[in-house]
Amino acid sequence: MKATQAAQTAVLGLGASLLLVVGLGFLTAAFWIYLATVSTALTAAMVIGGIYFGAGLIMIAMISARNRSARRELERMELARQHKSGDLQGTLYQIILAFMSGMQAGQKGRRG
């Protein structure tokens, strides 16, 4: 049942994607005709190219943000797992690092 539903969802998604690409092609052609009528073909190419380039950059930024968010979530889960498992050695190591960091900050504060 789940496999059938997943296949139907995949087919619908593929069909929707195909229709969106065809529609985008027609919209691009219409926009090109309009811009070429109002200005030159070079201007039309630059505007349409700039729009697609900008949309691509935005999508790359969204993917990058999603990857960073997923990486942070994995780090949080790993840290929570370590705390739950009672990783005494890791906890002591973190306490020692925090203590040393505080000592160094205190020494810098007295000198500066």
TrEMBL record:
Listed transmembrane segments = 12-35, 41-63
Tell me which UniProt keywords the record has, alphabetically.
Membrane, Transmembrane, Transmembrane helix
- Name under which the protein is recorded: Holin-X, holin superfamily III
Organism equals Sulfitobacter porphyrae
